[in-house]
Amino acid sequence: MAEQKIALVTGASRSVGKGIACALGSDGWTVYVTGRGPVGDGGPLDQTAATVTERGGHGIAVQCDHRDDKQIHELFTRISDEQEGRLDLLVNNVWASPKGFAGFTDPFWKRPVDDWDSLIGVGLRAHYVASVEAAQLMVPQGSGMMVNISSFGTRGYLHSVLYGMSKAGLDKMAADMAVDLRDTGVTALSLWPGLVKNEAMLARGLDNFQGFPLANAETPEFIGRVVVALAGDPNLNERSGSTLITAEAALDYGVVDIEGNQPDSHRNLFGGGPLFGG
């Protein structure tokens, strides 16, 4: 029997984080899932963990405010203690919107400067802190994968100035971490999902989002299936430092969405061109 692998998915109460955690559950992983919400009251984070377990994995919900370095450190200490120092996968997905999500319609000079604290403080810095902690477990074991959930907002304007800055930072972070991680067996990647039809969009009955049709949009679990395929690639370390587009990586690995469809890459819609690592 294969040894069960250990993952941490941050920001997994809903949407992309939940989809990734559930796909890992279907592949038999032990998955720690985090969020700011309480644990033990049957809320969204507990529900994600329960679904991971129902799928055949082992879901463990941990309340963590990723704005607090101490809480992040305590999270990784717990994982190390419970899993004998082992961690095979970190998915950096936690994110916090600025005050008033509709504020994304305003130009940067009309927005409060403390938007930085959410979009950069959580959307970039917290990922760096988690990666530092993860590397301290993965490098000694000689294996592991760290994945940043980034965005086409790196390539073209999307949402706001700070949103794009944070996503571009994630891609550069993975590229440069790969240099430091060379010959350690640990892989660092950044991943661009396409348009994701999440719970909020479905609840609103939308058929398009900002002009993009939802008919062939990605489900959160599609992104998770791509992460599972990447984690299972014996030659994955050759791609370390790369930024990958989920729809294109799915073609590489023969991954389809939950209804058997193949979501489209938005590369050309955002100007085309190469990404880090290719």
From TrEMBL:
InterPro entries: NAD(P)-bd_dom_sf, SDR_fam. Pfam families: adh_short. Transmembrane segments: none annotated. It comes from the Bacteria. Belongs to the short-chain dehydrogenases/reductases (SDR) family. This is SDR family NAD(P)-dependent oxidoreductase. The lineage of its organism: Bacteria, Bacillati, Actinomycetota, Actinomycetes, Mycobacteriales.
